[in-house]
Amino acid sequence: MKNLVIGGAGFIGSNLIKKLLDKNEKVHVIDNLSRKGTKELKKKIGFDKKYKFFRIDIKNYKQLEKFFKKNKFKNIFLLAGQVAVTTSLINPRLDFNSNVLGCFNVLEALRVNKSKSKIIFSSTNKVYGKLENQQLKFQKNIGYSLKKFPKGIKESVPINFVTPYGCSKGAADFYCQDYFKTFKLKTTVMRQSCIYGKMQLGIEDQGWIAWMIIAALLNKEIKIYGDGYQVRDVLFVDDLVDAYIKASKSNKTNGKVYNIGGGYKFKISVIGLIKSLEKKLKIKIRYKFLKERKGDQKVFISDNQKAKNDFNWQPKTRFDIGLNETINWIKSNLKFIKKINKI
Predict the structure, then answer these.
(1) Hey, which residues are catalytic here?
(2) How confident is the model at residue 110, as a pLDDT?
(3) Does the pLDDT value for residue 43 go beyond 80?
(4) C-alpha distances in angstroms, 335 versus 24, 39, 218, 222?
(5) CA-CA distances (angstroms) from residue 162 to 21, 56, 95, 175, 289?
(6) Measured CA angle at 161 (ends 206, 12), to 5 deg
(7) Taking a C-beta distance cutoff of 8 angstroms, is the pair 241, 8 a contact?
(8) Which H or E run contains 153?
(9) pLDDT band at 285, cuts 50/70/90?
(10) DSSP string covering 171-188, please?
């Protein structure tokens, strides 16, 4: 089976590629290597010689159309794009071009070339906005939860784009759905919650679990935006990769949208993570509180029932196990991460 990973030099892409290679699958990779650290990570992890790499920017339609004219794939995993809310606020045009135009170019190039590929698109929980109209419940040692959705947000909850990032990912999300309805491209959308794990370089604006581990190990003061009791369901990257692969093998997922996260069993607040890290690392972590950021959700937890029903997927990795694996990878690569992030 021939697979294409678009945005394959990043954190999630690298983990997906490794899994596919371990299964003896044929893998092609597209990436423009524009994101800080991707070029270095690609070489660092050591399996970049086992797949075919093409340096292509998905914002360039002519390159994509030419590429798909020559190459056919069973599965295409579309992971490329701008990933940080803060960057979208600073540079909305870059965010739009990377997320909306980039995704549209991929879909259009596949349509023009009459593709039969299965396309898995990496979307985000940010398409649901701040969930401001939902009643919150607060427990000091746990954080926020949604009274109406104790087991998480379902796909039926109305979308409500907030911030350019939410708009751009949401627009791309909808284009994927429409290209199934209108042109019969076999698209599947994954609205992902907080993903963490090995090969995550982590910066303050994106990859918060990895960033807090890195900051703690380097004795850096952590900035907490808001009261620190914001809650996310956290999903270990191996489980996300498993969801991609299972969804790619199922015709039932064609044209559908799935919320993919750790679920209500694997949830943690910012303060909760800091306390866990202090115990595991046996250190005192320095942090300070700042004003809440635009578009930040008080709580988001995915209801994964639809994914379980349609392609038999649910999270498997307990948070303490996933956190240990992430800590160990970061410890082993701290010098490399420090150099990449210029800390």
Answers:
(1) 165
(2) 98
(3) yes
(4) 31, 16, 10, 19
(5) 37, 30, 13, 18, 23
(6) 30
(7) no
(8) none
(9) very high
(10) HHHHHHHHHHHHH--EEE
Structural tokens at position 80:
């490329």
Q: Which of 254, 241, 331 is nearest to 8 (CA)?
A: 241
Q: How is 310-339 classified by DSSP, letter by letter?
A: HH-----S-HHHHHHHHHHHHHHTHHHHHH
What structural domains and CATH numbers belong to the chain?
A: 2-341 (3.40.50.720)
Amino acid residing at 109: A
CB 44 within 8 A of CB 334: no
How would you classify residue 219: left for phi > 0, otherwise alpha for psi between -120 and 50, otherwise beta?
left
Q: How far apart are CA 261 and CA 240, in angstroms?
A: 8
pTM, entire model: 0.97
If phi > 0 it is left, if psi is from -120 to 50 it is alpha, else beta; for residue 101 that is alpha
Cβ contacts of residue 267 below 8 Å, gap of 6+?
A: 231, 232, 233, 234, 301
Burial of 226 per CB tally in 10 Å (0-12, 13-18, 19+): middle
The string of pLDDT tens digits covering residues 198-228 is 999 999 989 999 999 999 999 999 999 999 9
pLDDT for residue 132: 85
- 250 CB-near residues (< 8 Å, 6+ apart): 310, 311
11-50 as b/e: b if 16+ CB within 10 A: bbbbbbbbbbeeeebebbbbbbbebebbebbbeebeebee
**Whether 136 contacts 299, CB under 8 Å:** yes
